[in-house]
Amino acid sequence: MDFYLDEENCYQRLLHDWLHYGSLIIAVDFDDTIYDFHKLGRSYNDVINLLKRWKPYAKIIIWTSHTEDEFPAIQEYCDSIGLEIDGINTDAIPNVKGRKMYANVYVDDHAGLPSTYRMLYRLIENIENGFKK
Fold first, then answer.
1. What's the topology of domain 12-128?
2. CA-to-CA distance for 92 and 102, rounded, in angstroms?
3. How far apart are CA 79 and CA 66, in angstroms?
4. Three-state DSSP class for residue 125
């Protein structure tokens, strides 16, 4: 099996990054990850509440295909749900070059959201329960 197909190896990398840097960068897709884009009445409260728990320990960047003219509405939505974000489609680390936004983890409904949620939940539980760096 490829190394990062094992969820435990992915978790250990997140743990290593948090221990090494004292923080994570979490890139969060907007539509259908924290916002009901299709207006189907779906809840995203579990993901939103997990991200709120991470805020003291991470930079949270919205990672979206929306255009810049929509960023104020995205910011307004995040403010309305009490989710403090550090930017939209921006790098949290200066001097990163290239098109891919750097993050330790990507939270996206199209890219393994259940596994990512489990790993972030497990790690924040450990941190909040006194896990020391």
1. Rossmann fold (3.40.50)
2. 8
3. 17
4. helix
Cα separation of 38 and 42, whole Å?
9
- CB 47, CB 118: distance < 8 Å: no
DSSP codes, 32-59? TTTB-TT-S----HHHHHHHHHHGGGEE
| Pairwise CA distance, residues 102 & 38, whole Å | 28
CB environment 77-104: b (16+ within 10 A), e (fewer): ebeeeebebeebbebbeeeeeeeebebb
Average confidence (pLDDT) per 10 residues, the chain, 133 residues: 93 95 95 96 97 97 95 98 95 69 92 95 94 59
Orientation angle between helical segments 113-128 and 45-54, nearest 10 degrees: 40
Please tell me the number of Cα atoms within 13 Å of 93 on its side-chain side: 16
- Residue 54: other Cβ atoms inside 10 A: 22
CA 132 from chain center: how many Å?
22
